């Protein structure tokens, strides 16, 4: 009984213990490491993958996987930037978010209605979205974005970078929902579609934040990000085979 309790404690809090150990070690090696300014820099740099990891948590919790997030990120960012050039910031961001959610929902529909494994369906979506990005951008960055759009990826509220605030809002807003999803068992088709739509939506958001940070939409954006997101979720304590996990563990990764 004690062994089971010990293993459960390690599973739930091992990543936090490891984080404390790493912070302690690096703080000993460099007195500048554990400072507020450095922590904010680290969190701002990792916030991009953090958005993807939240959506991936929902998908993996349902015993699925989404390999398309990096490509959906790029496609959404490119389309959003393209719309923004003529339609303004609001409609540009809206277009990016809507496209991401639509692509995610489509993957969910293919998986649930056509009974195609998530690995295959999202691998296909990865190719489709990446190809769509290259066609839409003609392989070139989309530039000339409004200067005020830079606030999304590079702005500050007080001394805190806005991407960090946005990341914490997303974690707070989705925390209760992921617990409810776990309790439901993720068995209903509509719930599965919803989890992929959430993943796609957050991929779209990530695409817009990244475009804001770079002041351009890059056709090669997001390559390899899906592996970073999956690693963060699994290392954060979510079972790769679904049904078990905590969003706070994913947060600790960042």
Order of helices and strands: HHHHHHEEHHHH
The tally of strands reads: 2
Which residue ranges are poorly predicted, with pLDDT under 50 across at least 5 consecutive positions?
Answer: none
Q: Total domains, how many? A: 2
> What structural class should be given to the helix and strand makeup?
mainly alpha
Cα separation of the termini: 33 Å
Mean pLDDT across every amino acid position? 83
Q: Major sheet: order of its strands?
A: 1-2
Helix content: over 70%
Can you describe this structure?
With 254 residues, this protein is mainly alpha-helical. The chain has helices at 2-29, 36-61, 69-87, 89-113, 118-137, 151-154, 162-184, 189-214, 225-235, 247-252, and strands at residues 156-157, 160-161. The protein has a two-stranded antiparallel ribbon. The radius of gyration is 19 Å and the shape is globular.
Give a short synopsis of this structure:
The chain is an all-alpha fold.
List keywords for this structure.
globular, single chain, 2 domains, 10 helices, two-stranded antiparallel ribbon, mainly alpha, 254 residues
Describe the protein's topology:
Blueprint: H1 2-29, H2 36-61, H3 69-87, H4 89-113, H5 118-137, H6 151-154, E1 156-157, E2 160-161, H7 162-184, H8 189-214, H9 225-235, H10 247-252
Antiparallel strand pairs: 1-2
Helix pairs in contact: 2-7, 2-8, 2-9, 3-4, 3-5, 3-8, 4-5, 4-8
């Amino acid at each position: 009984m004690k062994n089971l309790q010990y293993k459960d404690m390690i599973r739930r809090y091992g990543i936090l213990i490891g984080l404390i150990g790493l912070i302690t070690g690096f703080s000993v090696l460099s007195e500048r490491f554990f400072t507020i300014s450095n922590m904010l820099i680290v969190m701002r740099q990792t916030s991009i993958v953090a958005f993807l990891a939240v959506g991936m948590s929902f998908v993996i919790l349902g015993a699925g996987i989404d390999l398309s997030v990096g490509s959906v990120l790029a496609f959404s960012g490119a389309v959003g930037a393209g719309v923004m050039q003529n339609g303004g910031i609001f409609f540009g961001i809206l277009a990016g978010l809507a496209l991401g959610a639509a692509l995610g929902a489509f993957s969910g529909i293919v998986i649930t209605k056509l009974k195609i494994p998530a690995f295959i369906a999202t691998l296909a979506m990865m190719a489709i979205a990446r190809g769509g990005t290259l066609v839409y951008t003609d392989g070139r960055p989309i530039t000339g974005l409004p200067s005020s759009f830079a606030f999304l990826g590079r702005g500050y509220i007080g001394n805190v970078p806005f991407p960090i605030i946005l990341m914490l809002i997303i974690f707070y807003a989705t925390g209760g929902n992921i617990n409810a999803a776990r309790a439901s068992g993720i068995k209903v088709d509509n719930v599965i579609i919803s989890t992929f739509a959430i993943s796609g939506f957050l991929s779209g958001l990530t695409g817009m934040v990244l475009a804001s940070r770079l002041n351009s939409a890059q056709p090669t954006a997001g390559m390899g990000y899906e592996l970073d997101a999956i690693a963060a979720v699994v290392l954060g304590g979510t079972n790769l085979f679904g049904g078990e996990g905590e969003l706070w563990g994913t947060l600790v990764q960042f």
